[in-house]
C-alpha cells in the first residue's frame, strides 16, 4: 500500500475517532451503534486481503477495485455492494478532462473507499461529511451520500466549465483563427465524449441505490439521494446538448471554410478573366500578319488603349458584382 490508510468511526451519529490503525476496524464493528469508514489509496490485492476477510468482500469485487479502468457501476454481492465511479477535473486550459477512479465497498455499517491515485479530493469529501453532522445518524447512507454528491457535483462543474469554453468558441468561430479554433473544437469534443462515458452510467448507479429492496437508503435520506439523481440527469442532458452544439459548430466551421474557398476561387477567376483579355490582345498583335495599324505608331498606341480600357472595364464589372 502506497499511502497510510485514513479511518473514521462514528458512534450513535457522532464522530468518535479518526486515523486509527486499520486493524482496529473489526474491534469497532464488534461494538453496537458504530459506523466505520476506511480509505485506501492505490492498494494491491495483498493490501485489501485483510479488509476483505474481515468484511467478507467478494473476490470479484476486490479484483475490480484493484484492476482499475472499470466502467461506473453498482454491483450487488452477498452481504455488500460494490460501487465504481470517477471524479473529474478540468485541466489548466479548461479543454481537457482528467478523471480519477474511486471504488467503494458498501456494507451495513462500513464504507471502504479505494482510490487509484491521489487526484480524488479526499479533503473535500471530509468537509462534506463534517458539514452535515445532523445526517450522521443514518450511518452508511450518510457517508455514501457525501461521496456521491461530491462526485456528481464535480461532473456538473466540469460540464458548466466546458459550456463556458464552448461559448467562447462560438465567438471565435467567425474570427480569422480557423486552425486554432479547429484544435480547440477537437479537444472539447474529445473531453465531452470522455465526460459522457463517466456521467451517463451514474444515472443507473444512483437510480439503483434508490430501490427500496436494497435497503441502503433510509426514508429520511431519500430526498437527498433524489437530489443527487436530479443533478446526474441534468449533467447527462447538458453533456448531450453540448455534444450537439459542438457538432453544429463543426458543421458551421466546414461551411465557413467552404464559403471562404469559394470566395478565393471567385477572386482568382475574376483576376484570371481580367488578365486573359489583355493576354489575348497582345497575343494577337504579336502575330506576324498585317492588321490595322501594323507598323504604325498609332497602331501601337491604339493597342495600349485597348488593353487599358478592357482591363479597367472588366475590373469595374467584377468589382460591382463583388467578384473582386
Description:
It is a multi-pass membrane protein. The protein has 324 residues and is an alpha+beta fold. It has two domains: 6-256, Beta Polymerase, domain 2 (2-Layer Sandwich), CATH 3.30.460.20; 257-320, no CATH class. The chain is built from eight helices and seven strands. Strands 2-1-3-7-6-5-4 form a seven-stranded mixed beta sheet, with helices on both faces. Strand 6 and strand 7 (110-115) form a beta hairpin. Helix 5 (140-173) runs antiparallel to helix 6 and helix 7 (222-285) runs antiparallel to helix 8. The chain is rod-shaped. The model has no long low-confidence stretch (mean pLDDT 84).
Label the CATH architecture of the largest domain.
2-Layer Sandwich
- For the record, the count of structural domains works out to 2
End-to-end separation: 71 Å
Which blocks of ≥5 consecutive residues have pLDDT under 50?
none
Helix and strand element order: EEHEHHEEEEHHHHH
Q: What is the CATH class designation of the largest domain?
A: Alpha Beta
Estimated radius of gyration? 35 Å
What's a quick, concise take on this entry?
The chain crosses the membrane at residues 268-286, 298-318. With 324 residues, this protein is an alpha+beta fold.
